[in-house]
Amino acid sequence: MSREIIAILRGLTPDEAEAAAEALIAEGITKIEVPLNSPSPFESIRRMVAAAGDRALIGAGTVLSPEDVNRVAEAGGRLVVSPNCDLRVIAATRAAGMESWPGVMTPTEAFAALKGGATGLKLFPGNLLGPAGLKALRAVLPPETRVYAVGGAGPANFAEWVAAGASGFGIGTALYTPGLDAGSLATNAAGIVAAYDEACR
């Protein structure tokens, strides 16, 4: 079963990409982003897509321009995640047939992103608003809106976020830090998946 978790592999290198993707998929995490401030991110995306693109939604994070969107598409990515709400990035992403997850914090940004065609919203940094802030935002968002909490959301408080209306999560350093081997990544992923499943019961 696939979970509503995006693995954020900041710092991943191309030589680690295939093994990392396989480790995550084996533990039930099938949404993977390589932030563009990682070494050779487009090559990492290309390798992961070639190895596992039929089993996982793979793409990029920290996408800040339409030009970067096009490069993600050329690498075979199908997921674009940003830390901010840039309508040009959303439009380019949707035009390329990819999922768009812009970063938002305020109702103004959230509604602008949705009007622009965003697939879902990345509440970022989540720790600044917290579950209480998400709950307040949920009161005005269309009920079908998918909201992923990123930053300050993890195994210790998944249940609190889910109760506040989180649809899912983006998980970075709790899952992966630069240089982590695939076995350790799998161990981290297993723990996060178990906590997620418990919170979503």
Structure, explained:
This protein is α/β, with parallel strands linked by helices. The chain has a single domain, classed as Alpha-Beta Barrel (TIM Barrel), CATH 3.20.20.70. Helices cover 45% and strands 16% of the residues. It has helices at 14-26, 41-52, 66-74, 87-95, 107-115, 126-138, 158-164, 182-199, and strands spanning 5-8, 31-35, 57-61, 79-81, 99-101, 103-104, 121-123, 147-150, 168-171. The chain has a nine-stranded parallel β-sheet with strand order 5-4-3-2-1-9-8-7-6. The model has no long low-confidence stretch (mean pLDDT 97).
Provide the fold topology.
Blueprint: E1 5-8, H1 14-26, E2 31-35, H2 41-52, E3 57-61, H3 66-74, E4 79-81, H4 87-95, E5 99-101, E6 103-104, H5 107-115, E7 121-123, H6 126-138, E8 147-150, H7 158-164, E9 168-171, H8 182-199
Parallel strand pairs: 1-2, 1-9, 2-3, 3-4, 4-5, 6-7, 7-8, 8-9
Give unreliable regions as ranges: none
**What number of structural domains do the residues give?**
1
CATH C-level: Alpha Beta
- Number of alpha- plus pi-helical segments: 8
CATH architecture: Alpha-Beta Barrel
Label this structure with key terms.
201 residues; alpha/beta; nine-stranded parallel beta sheet; globular; TIM Barrel; 16% strand
Outline:
With 201 residues, the protein is α/β, with parallel strands linked by helices.
